[in-house]
Design brief:
By secondary structure, the chain is mainly β. The protein has 8 helices and 37 strands. It has one domain: TonB-dependent receptor, beta-barrel domain (Maltoporin, Chain A), CATH 2.40.170. The protein has a 22-stranded antiparallel beta barrel.
């Protein structure tokens, strides 16, 4: 499992790959968790330079001295996964909650504690090419779970392979291709609660020199809450070409139209008593008996709050194998068109953004002082221009233009890493990242312009010890760096430009991963010291709250990430060809202030020692799964013993909750499967998302989003 692999360059070129043969469900989240040892075999050479398979990705991830994860599509396709957050539920250290249909907040090690729709703190890639915006945020709407082969999760600076050194790290989403997709045609149809219907189809084909993959998904649903309708169409394709000299190139195309209504947030008591309700209207008065009542904001239904995003994206990746070096280069262009109607104060946010970028990556292996050294060097440049406008919201329609600004962003990234084999079992990792960023906003309507330029060098050191062929120990220390995004600096285009310092982090981490006959594990413990952490406060506005970002002073994030798979098949079941697997994921988040934050919203708050709001302290996820022949059945649990605080003053805490679900499937033929999933069987009323405030006892803000109630989904998938 953890045997010393070939050099990095050799792995990128061809080498024999270790393959973990999956059953109906692949049990791989933390990279230490995998299928039982007796299901491991070795097969032939890699078929594509631009499209590594999941087995090769695991081989590379096992050489990272820190917390990483691998999620194959088989893990989440049994459930009704609407968004990228639904695919990461069983990944230790990852917290994903839902603020609206198709909209997920993902936090890794406390990154982006409560950033609004445009998420920060994680560098998201598709096939190694950035889809996170040059302006510093990510639209998770751009990802369709049904066009994913597998997902790599790099926590914190463990994502240096892709140049990432932020607190949250990197997520790389790998697409099926004509060479990695076994089936030429696939079709999937699903339906269920809340008038939900989804259909997806794909085609894949490979010839000697060419290969092609294309997939399209359509989704519609009325949603669990009032005014939470979603209508989405997503298409992704790629074409690969091999040349006689060994060069391989691949072009990727993504087209997306994602439209969903926003139900808004509620007061806590209201959210628990009326979880299906949309946000209420806000009124003041009467100030004397019989006096007038003024409606400050009629609420999401009357003003048709929604978020509509259209994306066109084209990218290229080319791999050139040289004698002892592999060269990888690529470029991308993206056009994003956003129409986002929210409160009367915020209005209708309309943005048209053009983004271009390119990258270069070299990998090789050499001898240095008699030691084997695998090395990688990379550089990346990205720039965007965003025409950001804000209109009055007249019952959901654009009214007068209130504000307009030209928002420019630029990133220059250079990084390198060397894996030095000190002995056959012990490897030292030395790396460094340099990031230079510019965020500039020129306001057309007034003189409130601004720009922020940040740069920093971030080192990384690590040790990886192969205890034996099936177990590892690792440790690392690294520096992290995250400049503010344009969305943070302008509150999504609603407020004036407010300069923010970059978030600076030092992290130490240690852990182990491995497998024995009946158990597989993945364990990390870490502590991060953070200066200028970005925290979000919902700011009062006319009839609602606008999320604005501030710098805290000094904070600490520390925690435990544990994944354990137990292979519990008793002899009686084994004789009948059945398997029983118990998967367990536990995440402990201990995030707190170590000094008072700087002046927030014109007030000084005594937060010293308080817990950071927005993410629960403990999360436990479990699944017990039985498989036999053509069928499988599983029961799962998600338990949050104590909900997160809604405010940094720690006056209001969300109630605990337990969610129970089941999944089952049956292979009608070798090419067709029926599947069903039931979520929140007990119809638990709970809070899935909070928008953090300074002191909820003073503000009484409507910042609580109810989670989805009982739901049942089922479908049919066909592949041939």
């Amino acid at each position: 499992m953890f045997a010393k692999p070939a050099s990095l360059a050799a792995r990128l070129l061809a080498g024999a790959a270790i393959v973990y043969l999956p059953s109906a469900g692949a049990f791989a989240q933390g990279v230490g968790q995998t299928t039982p040892l007796d299901e491991i075999t070795v097969i032939g050479e890699r078929t594509s330079l631009t499209a590594p398979g999941a087995a090769e990705a695991r081989d590379i991830l096992e050489r990272v001295p820190g917390g990483v994860g691998l999620v194959e599509a088989d893990v989440f396709l049994d459930d009704f996964a609407q968004s990228i957050g639904d695919t990461l539920v069983f990944t230790p250290g990852v917290f994903a909650d839902t603020s609206a249909q198709r909209e997920t907040r993902i936090s890794i090690r406390g990154s982006g504690l409560n950033s609004s729709f445009e998420r920060r703190g994680i560098s998201v890639r598709r096939d190694g090419v950035p889809i996170s915006r040059a302006s510093g945020s990510t639209e998770f709407q751009e990802i369709d779970p049904l066009t994913i082969d597998y997902i790599e999760v790099f926590k914190g600076a463990n994502g240096l392979r892709y140049g990432a050194a932020s607190l949250g790290g990197a997520i790389n989403i790998v697409t099926p291709t004509g060479r990695t997709r076994d089936d030429a045609f696939t079709f999937r149809a699903e339906g269920g609660s809340f008038a939900t219907a989804r259909a997806s189809a794909s085609v894949a084909h490979a010839r000697d020199k060419w290969d092609f993959y294309g997939g399209v998904t359509g989704l519609r649903s009325d949603g669990y809450r009032d005014h939470s309708d979603v209508r989405s169409v997503y298409g992704h394709s790629n074409v690969g070409r091999k040349f006689d000299n060994g060069v391989e190139t691949r072009v990727y195309l993504t087209v997306l139209s994602d439209n969903f209504e926003l139900a808004g947030s509620l007061a806590l008591d209201d959210a628990l008593a009326n979880p299906t309700a949309a946000g209420r209207s806000v009124t003041i008065g009467p100030f004397f008996p019989g006096g007038p009542v003024t409606v400050l904001d009629p609420g999401p239904e009357a003003d048709d709050w929604d978020r509509n995003l259209d994306v066109f994206r084209i990218a290229n990746k080319t791999v050139v194998p040289l004698d002892a070096v592999t060269l990888e280069a690529g470029a991308w262009y993206a056009l994003r068109d956003l129409d986002h109607a929210i409160t009367r104060f915020a209005g209708v946010i309309a943005q048209a953004e053009h983004e271009v970028g390119g990258f270069l990556r070299l990998a090789g292996d050499n001898k240095l002082a008699g030691l084997n050294v695998d090395w990688v060097f990379g550089a990346e440049v990205a720039a965007s221009d965003n025409d950001a406008r804000r209109f009055e919201n007249n019952a959901g329609e654009r009214g007068a233009l209130r504000n307009r600004s030209d928002q420019d962003a630029r990133n220059i990234l250079v990084y390198g890493q060397a894996d030095i084999s000190l002995t056959d079992e012990l490897t030292a990792i030395v790396g460094v990242q340099y990031l230079n960023t510019l965020r500039d906003s020129d306001n057309v309507f007034n003189a409130v312009d601004g720009d922020v330029s940040e740069s920093q060098i971030n080192p990384r050191f690590g040790l990886l010890w192969d205890v034996d062929d099936n177990a590892q120990l690792f440790a690392n220390v690294n520096r992290g760096f995250e400049p503010a995004g344009i969305s943070d600096l302008t509150a999504g285009g609603v407020l004036d430009f407010t300069p923010l310092a970059a978030q600076d982090t030092w992290t130490v981490e240690a852990g182990t991963r491995g497998q024995r006959d009946w158990i597989a594990w993945d364990f990390s413990i870490y502590r991060s010291w953070i200066e200028n952490e970005f925290i979000d406060l919902a700011q009062p506005s006319f009839g609602g709250f606008i999320s604005a970002t501030f710098n805290a002073d000094e904070t600490v994030h520390q925690g435990i990430e544990l994944g354990v798979d137990l292979f519990l098949t008793p002899p009686a079941l084994e004789e009948k060809g059945a398997e029983l697997i118990w998967r367990n994921i536990y995440t402990y988040n201990d995030f707190f202030f170590t000094s008072d934050p700087r002046d927030l919203n014109g007030q000084a708050f005594a937060f010293d020692g308080n817990r950071l709001a927005g993410v629960p302290e403990q999360i436990y996820v479990s699944e017990l799964r039985l498989e036999k022949g053509r069928w499988y059945a599983a029961v799962n649990l998600r338990w949050v013993p104590e909900g997160p605080f809604a405010d940094f003053a720690n006056t209001v805490q969300v109630p605990d909750y337990e969610l129970i679900g089941v999944t089952a499937g049956y292979d009608i033929t070798d090419n067709a499967r029926l599947f069903v999933s039931a979520e929140n069987l007990a119809d638990e009323v709970y809070i899935s998302n909070v928008s953090t405030v300074a002191d909820q006892s003073l503000e009484g803000a409507r910042v609580f989003t109810p989670g989805q109630g009982r739901a049942v989904f089922g479908g049919l998938s066909v592949a041939f």
